């Protein structure tokens, strides 16, 4: 591909799926790329998501957000345009709406005439449109390579794997990481079709087959063997952005939380949260809350609920009886958005109990808090394995194989192993490994080199 002869400018269209867990990495990618001169970014966003994206995207003269109109779909409430605003009953309808956007996107691309469109897993219909218009297409994975590697291990199958097949690592898969029964049954979601639309697996395969290159938010240092495995499975160039670390939030942590956290000694508070779109069951909330109480440590627990539920009612309903009175002065429970990066950076915070969302684990590693993982769905299981078993930078809460049940003691034991038994060999090596990865993730030179190479790769696609 050649860029404009006169300007030598590279015009990229960004087109993420309708979820902030996807939009955020696309914004990070845009911000990294737009810091280089000669890159023009047109960021496509459903109208309802534009305002929030405006607060995240670095605006330059060469960056624009283009609002999209989400087509009407029966059952999907007006104005609901991302997964966080849907309910579990309607979330899959977003893919129906997305599929109906094909004429709108074709029209836009025809007018924008970008060199490359960088798109997400759900838009499997995009590569043929791009090819027809003479535009290159790059499928960007917001997931770690280890998670994509496990998906590509299913290439060539005519029927979905059984739970037994998923629990054993496929032949040639790096390491010995396999799924437990409850994780395998969650993994089978990717083979399920909803409302007659293609499954996640079918979409991803079409994206990979049709695109000109696959772009991973990863690098060889982080997970070389898994990236090599993907390259063997899919016959496409694999581009890498390197270790993308979310930029620090601007501004200060809200005074209420600063005042509360400052009450406690350095590195003593457990911050516990599950990202933007992961919800716990009633039993999980009970055991988690009791487990945190059992540690005796101060804690800041964030619990969110699907958008169709009233969170204050849900908190009252799900927290154990008498819990808030017992933990008064030592524990807080909050529902809603918090300034996570500020909280993780606060000196009183010593432990992060989380769902192992990709950005969240990276944010934990660039700070000094210990990582305790309680993955609940999708790629979180693989992220957690990479952190606990490959990088050995944290621990996972022990679970029952068949259904993933964990009790309060399991939460307590996991926290104890990194927060109280700090002199064991395991705890010491976790701290050492954490330090090593923190250094790597904060190394600007490595990051810059990956971005420079990526720009070169995009220009020669
Ligand atoms: O109250 C909150 C909640 C989240 N965040 C930020 O939002 C991002 C969350 O990212 P991540 O941890 O990756 O979680 P989710 O958005 O919850 O994750 C979805 O998307 C990820 C890929 O991007 C996947 O790894 C997860 O499985 C999937 O649930 C992070 O930057 C957080 O700092 C906040 O600042 N405040």
TrEMBL record:
Its EC number is 2.4.1.-. InterPro entries: UDP-glycosyltransf_plant, UDP_glucos_trans, UDP_glycos_trans_CS. It is an enzyme of class 2 (transferase). The keyword Isomerase does not apply. GO terms for molecular function: UDP-glucosyltransferase activity. Pfam families: UDPGT (PF00201). It comes from the Eukaryota. Keywords: Glycosyltransferase, Transferase. Belongs to the UDP-glycosyltransferase family. This is Glycosyltransferase.
